[in-house]
Design a protein that fits this description.
mainly beta, four-stranded antiparallel sheet, 4 helices, 7% helix, elongated, disordered N terminus
Length: 758
């Protein structure tokens, strides 16, 4: 690893913390600690050390696995840290001179280093190993020579540090909303933890005066406890508790202090990605100018298996090729022989929701180039000149369907509007608006004249409406007294799922819904006034030639046009003889068989721990001839039918596809995805992710005024941090801080292409 010199320049700032040399400083330096002669910090997932005056910076760890929470031993000769090696977070220690880290803990639960015992013979760490609850921890100590950890106390403690005499423990007794994948900045709800001081020998508890504020990161200097708090309702700042009094030491306004540690008369802390040194006697702060040039494996342009981030897969007309959206690129993959094509290959642009044209000659998708959404229509081999249509200056859009006639594309926006993009006119028309937020589900008739779609009404029930493109008229199929969803047209019918018992289950935040499983029946609306039920009793008579000819002519006519008689259509809704369960997507095969996807649900059964996941649905097929339900495949996520309804694509997340015939026994074979690969420039991709996250917040946030925050200014505030991002985890931290500015909970960022060990 090549490392440039790291220098520290002292700039007396008092209580002002905005650096004056930001352009010269490496940012995203995290979790600093200080000893008599050195500083240590985390950067790019590695542990670094430098002399206290800033000379001789060097990395102590270079593993692609993340390391965190470095803490100096009392004598300053060792650093304990948490290493996430082998995909498990454990306690390690390494001498400040470098070398192979020594592993101290071996439990599957995460062991997070907090500090050391005063004599330096034990490492203090937090773990939920005896609680197995992500919101509770206890403190443990492990001998530096190994052995079995000992529990400090039975009480819940999320983080803590011993006093110099080892008699008192300053700790945080519960979880805090600030941590994790949601920022919760200035949160004032139920999780606003205090700082407590336990005299372990005397079994006496002292509570630091605590307003309704977030307080964490306690540590000792001499006989005083220092901690971070946002009790000033402006930002997270540094405070001291001494002689029963709390004194504020910093007055940050722009950046929260993320972490702090102390030694002697100095505190080192991090805010806005910068490191600061505070002299607690004088109250003067200096920003540490740190210049690093470290090699980063995650930052290097490289080939990636894009199929691991597969988001959609659709079959071409006859199922010869599969159109895939994966990692923001659009691919077509052959069902058998042929080449895989990446039609977009853009690291800095996200393309998604790809659709086939009915004849298979073109594809359509959404592009966010220029930080705005456009509809792109390109040739299926990517050799033509794409047509680009800006959808709107604002809004977040998703494509739903391309009409069988090839003349329009259906899409929706995040403001609950459903649109039709008319390809001949090259303009969009709004079809409908849903009163409540839910996904639109759509289905075209074979001739493209009619579109069935769902909307979520005021009572939360989904309803089905049919739009006639030839007249512009709309007809409500369902009466609003049931929850109807998943419409799909066949030649003579519109099939859908519906329920009259979903009321208590419509609002997910009501915990009573967990014990109220939804039961959906399957129904068929007969489109023609003189049509017959799909389960009409058989006469048992000999077939006649005229009947056969009539059936043949009718079949030919339905391929050309579809007519729906809307008068009294609700009286022609027929229930199919299928047990009521939690049904989702429906599809009709070429032989008329009805495919039905069933998913398990809470309350219907009690599954063992670890059960369920992205491939827990079961696909059935209803045989109208024998009027029975047949098992097609279990352990899938969803399915797709080719437009000619002859082929069946079975999809299991994250990246398993199987293709077969659209029948009860599809004999589905795996689809090779080895060539679904993208050459990724991570820097460009991270910029796109940042832009997309900022844009999603702007478009989806419930308050159009963004809580009074200048959201454009927030872009300008956090975007410069991207130049210092070394890995996807760094980007996630920046995004968490960005969305935390909105001061709302349950607004999360996480995951992505992070390092995953064996």
């Amino acid at each position: 690893m090549k490392v440039q010199a790291l220098t520290l320049t002292g700039i007396l700032l008092g209580l002002v913390t905005t650096p004056t040399a930001a352009s010269e400083t490496t940012r995203l330096l995290r979790q600093p600690d200080i000893s008599a002669n050195h500083i240590t910090f985390m950067y790019g997932g590695d542990i670094w050390i430098a002399d206290r005056n800033g000379s001789n910076p060097r990395p102590l760890t270079t593993s692609p696995a993340p390391e965190s929470n470095p803490k100096f031993s009392p004598d300053g000769k060792w650093i304990a840290f948490t290493g996430n090696y082998d995909s498990n977070a454990d306690v390690y220690m390494v001498p400040i001179t470098g070398g192979q880290p020594a592993r101290l803990t071996y439990h599957p639960s995460a062991d997070v280093v907090n500090g050391w015992s005063p004599n330096g013979d034990h490492v203090l760490f937090a773990s939920n190993r005896e609680i197995l609850n992500s919101r509770s921890n206890q403190l443990f100590e492990i001998d530096v020579d190994g052995g079995y950890p000992t529990k400090v106390m039975t009480a819940v403690a999320y983080e803590g540090q011993w006093s110099d005499d080892g008699k008192r423990l300053a700790y945080r007794p519960n979880n805090m909303a600030y941590s994790g994948s949601s920022g919760w900045r200035l949160h004032r709800g139920g999780s606003t933890p205090p700082i407590w001081i336990m005299n372990v020998e005397a079994n006496e508890l002292e509570r630091v005066p605590h307003p309704n504020a977030n307080e964490h990161n306690p540590f000792w200097l001499q006989d005083s406890v220092y901690f971070l708090s946002d009790r000033d309702n402006i930002a997270m700042n540094l405070y001291r508790y001494e002689d029963s009094q709390v004194v504020q030491l910093t007055n940050n306004t722009e950046w929260d202090i993320q972490s702090a540690s102390g030694h002697g008369n100095h505190v080192i802390y991090e805010a806005g990605g910068y490191l600061y040194m505070l002299d607690v006697n004088s109250g003067a702060s200096e920003v540490l100018t740190v210049e690093l040039n470290a090699a980063s494996e995650q930052r290097r342009p490289q080939w990636k298996d894009a199929s691991r981030q597969l988001t959609s897969a659709r079959l071409s007309t006859t199922g010869q090729r599969i159109l895939i959206t994966a990692r923001g690129d659009v691919f077509t993959v052959p069902a058998k022989a042929g080449s895989t094509r990446n039609l977009t290959a853009t690291s800095g642009v996200r393309e998604f929701d790809a659709l086939w044209s009915p004849d298979g000659s073109q594809v359509a998708y959404i592009s966010d180039e220029g930080n705005q959404h456009s509809l792109v229509i390109d040739t299926q081999d990517g050799r033509g000149e794409p047509q680009i249509f800006l959808l709107d200056d604002s809004g977040y859009f998703n494509l739903l369907a391309w009409s069988p006639a090839g003349d329009r594309i259906i899409y929706h926006d995040n403001h609950l509007n459903l649109y039709s993009f008319e390809l001949t006119e090259k303009s969009a028309k709004r079809i409908a608006m849903s009163p409540r937020r839910s996904d639109f589900q759509v289905s075209f008739t074979a001739d493209g004249r009619y579109l069935a779609f769902t909307t979520s009404e005021a009572n939360y029930f989904s309803q089905i409406t049919i739009h006639d493109f030839s007249t512009g008229q709309q007809h409500r199929l369902t009466d609003g007294m049931s929850h109807a969803q998943n419409p799909v047209f066949a030649d003579e019918y519109l099939y859908f799922a519906a329920s009259v018992n979903t009321g208590p289950s419509q609002v997910g935040l009501d915990l009573s819904t967990q014990e109220r499983p939804v039961r959906l029946g399957i129904y068929a609306a007969v489109l023609s006034a003189d049509g017959k039920s799909p389960v009409f009793p058989k006469s048992g008579d000999e077939p006649t030639d005229s009947a056969t000819d009539e059936k043949s002519e009718t079949a030919e006519d339905t391929e050309k046009s579809v007519t729906i008689d809307f008068e009294s259509i609700q009286n022609r809704i027929v229930g199919l003889p299928i047990a009521e369960k939690n049904y989702g997507k429906l599809g009709v095969g070429k032989d008329g068989g009805l495919f039905i996807l069933e998913s398990p649900q809470a309350g219907a059964s009690n599954e063992p721990p670890g059960a369920g996941g992205p491939g827990d649905a079961t696909l059935h097929r209803f045989n109208f001839e024998e009027q029975k339900l047949e098992l097609v495949e279990s352990g899938i996520s969803t399915f797709e039918l080719s437009p000619d309804r002859s082929k069946l694509l079975l999809i299991t997340r994250p990246n398993q596809l199987k293709l077969g015939d659209a029948s009860a026994k599809p004999d589905a074979k795996p689809v090779a995805l080895a060539d679904v690969r993208s050459f990724i420039d991570p820097v460009a991709e991270w910029q796109q992710i940042f832009d997309d996250t900022w844009r999603m917040q702007k478009e989806y946030f419930y308050d159009p005024n963004m809580h009074g925050i200048d959201w454009d200014a927030m872009y300008d505030k956090y975007q410069p941090m991207l130049a210092h991002v070394q890995r996807r985890e760094d980007l996630n931290e920046v995004l968490v801080q960005l969305i935390a500015e909105l001061q709302v909970g349950h607004n999360r960022v996480g995951g992505g292409d992070v390092y995953r060990g064996e």
